[in-house]
Amino acid sequence: MKFSYIGKLLTVCLFLFSCKNQGSIESSSEDISVIAVGSCNKMSVDQSIWDNIELQSPDLFVWLGDIIYGDTDDMEVLRGKYNALKTHPEYVDFLSRTKVIGVWDDHDYGLNDGGKEFLMKKESRDVLLEFLDVPSEDDIWNREGAYSSYEMGTGSKKVKLILLDSRYFRDALKDATNPDLRYEPNPVGDILGEEQWAWLENELRNSDAAVHIIGNGIQVIPEDHGFEKWANLPQARNRLFDLIQEIKPSNTILLSGDRHISEISKIDLPDLDYPLYELTASGMTHTWREAWEEVNQHRIGDHVRARNYGLIKVDWSKEPLEITFEIRGLENTLYKAEKLLL
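RE: above sequence
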C-alpha cells in the first residue's frame, strides 16, 4: 500500500530524527533473487521512478553512479545535493523498504568526465559514503577510493557483488582528433590503480559465490562510441578481461550506467566458457533528448531511450540457475528482457 503524500512527508521527518538507516547493507546470509540498478538521477526532475522500482520488490538497489548532479569542488554544495535526495519523500519511502548500496560516476564525483586529477576526490569520497550510510567501522574508510564488495546468500545461492571505482585512480583521457568523437584510446592509461587491481584479484580468487556481479559507472564492453568507456583505456579493459578469463569466476556479469540510455551488451572471450554480458542501466530521470544511431557491435537488439532502471533476476530453482536482465520504466513498462546463456 502506498503512502499518501502527507504520509511521505511524515516519513521524511521520522527519517531525519532516526539514527538507524534501513537502506544500508552489509554482507548477509539472506538470499538475493532480484537486484534493481540505476544511474543518472537529477533532483530537479520528477522522482516517481522510485515507486515503479518498488513494484518489483527488489531485495537490493545498486547505484551505478550519477546519483546526483553535483559537478562541484565545494563539498557543502555536494553534501546539500545528496541530502536533498536523501530526504525526498519518494526516496525516503523507497529506503524504508529496500536496501541500497552504490558507487559513483563523474557527476557525483564532482568533475565531469573526471579522473585522478580531481583535487577534492578524497573529500568527495567521504561525502558519498556518508550519503550511503557506510558504517564507520567498514574497511572502505581506511583506504583510498570508493570500491567495495558484498556477499549475500549462502552455499549454492551465494552472490558476490563487486563495485569498482573508475574515477579516483583513472588516468587522463585523450581528446579525439576526429570531430565526431569526444575521446580516442589512450593506449597506456589505467583505470583502477594497482591497489584496486590487487584487491579485485583477491576478491575474485577467494570467492566461492555462485554468481559474480561486477559494477562500475562506465561501460566496459562497448567500444564503438566516442564517449567515456573502458575502451578509451584499452590496456585496462584488456587487463580486466584477462583477469576474468584467468580466474574464471562462476556466472560473472557486468553492470554500468552513465550513458543516458540503457542496453545489453555481450562479448565472447576466448578463454571463458560462457559469454560475458553487461547491463547498462541509465536514465532514471532523463535520457537522450533526440534519438540518433549509435553503433555498438556488442549490443543485443536495440537500446532503450525512455526513462528506465535495470533488474537482475536470479531463478535459483533452475538447474543450471537462470539469470535474466530486464530494462523497465514508468508505469511498469517492460522495455527489454534477456535470458543470459551462462
